[in-house]
Amino acid sequence: MGPRVRGMLKRCSPRRDRIGAVLASALVLLAALALTDAPAIAQERPRTLLDMLFGNGLQQPRPVYRIDPRARAAPPAQRQPIRRARKPRPKRPAPSAAAAPTAPTVAEKADDAKTVLVVGDFLAASLAGGLEDAYADNDMVRIQAAANGSSGLVRQDHYDWSRQLGPLIQQNKPAVVVMMIGSNDRQPIRSASGTLALRSPEWDTEYERRVDAIASIVQKSDVPLVWVGMPPFKYDRMSEDMVFFNDLYLQATNKVSGAFVQVWEGFVDENDGFVYSGPGVDGQTVQLRNSDGITMTDAGDAKLAFFAKKAIDRYMAGETSTAVGKIEPGMQLPPIANAANAVRTPPMSLDDPSLDGGDALLGGGSGPALTLQTSPRDKLVLTGRGTGHVNGRADDFAWNDKAGAVASGNNSIAYRGSLDMNKVRAEQGIKPPKPMPSILDAIMDDWAKQQQQQQDTPAKP
């Protein structure tokens, strides 16, 4: 370093010292101000990005808010709910008589109407109600219900049907007796010898005897018996016992030549399980059983009557009803002749309109007309009589008068048909073949021939 530069440094050193002293005093003053007025400065100046990221090292106190009670706003008034005026509902018109469900028309019973006596337990009462509706329009059939809801064949101390049934038949003089019982019989039998447990061998024997006694009472009264079987119930054990009861009822009914009505399939599904709802008598799905799974609804009563009515009608077939016994004006009686018995038909013109086709829709025509003459089918099936001989008809299989069916003679084999086989043999020299020997004769003949050949053959020298 040269002397000139050294001189310049010496001249600048005092000025540099003064500047350094001023800067040092300024720094001290700033540090003092920072320690005393740092919170006020931090509150006055806005926060920078560095302050938000790293903070300024000072914890700012939260401002204290004071509420002046004089400046408190009054509470808002409670809102009142707005009530809207409801429009008056139009009154529904009362259902007319036509819209109300119509009850079945009950015909006034004739004086000589036949009585159907229905006896048994509470299910018999349901059956009687269904039969009353089923025969409501028949003035020749009267339903008489004589059921005891809590009765059965076990508790004879409560109600003894073996003593009560005979007087009921004598009093009502029914044309048919309908019995339906067994729902209350799932209990022990108490007798003089002791108590018999349910479904024990002794219980089964005693119960079968009582069932046969009921059937015998009806038979001795000279009245047909229709015994309606038990339906299934909600509980499986109860349904199992009903199957056993139905078998006893069927056997007892057959002994007196009565009719047993099986209703089981009408109250089960395709898996033979109990159902609450099922098809009614009109084919629509309806509720057949009440919620207890034991009693019947009105639809169930109608279905019981539907099954029983078929058997009752077989015994009441000779009785006439209003629809059959009275001839209304304009009614056409069925023809006496049967079309199946016609031998010839009247000629038909080629321009007859009926040749163009039927004038009724498919399925809309009437059923086969009733006639008073027996058809050929009924003659053959019911009475065993044929249709008779009619010349020229398709079923005329008789021989004509030109030759007899069988030639005269005693030998049925030689004279079979209209050709004399012996005459043909004599003219043509035909001989009948020899009869074939039996197997044993053929073996013996063959052995004899072999022996003869061996004897005829000369021995070799």
Automatic annotation (TrEMBL):
The lineage of its organism: Bacteria, Pseudomonadati, Pseudomonadota, Alphaproteobacteria, Hyphomicrobiales. InterPro entries: DUF459, SGNH_hydro_sf. Residues 67-106 are annotated as: Disordered. Residues 81-92 have a biased composition (Basic residues). This is DUF459 domain-containing protein. SUPFAM superfamilies: SGNH hydrolase. Gene3D superfamilies: SGNH hydrolase. CDD domains: SGNH_hydrolase_peri2 (cd01829). GO terms for molecular function: hydrolase activity, acting on ester bonds.
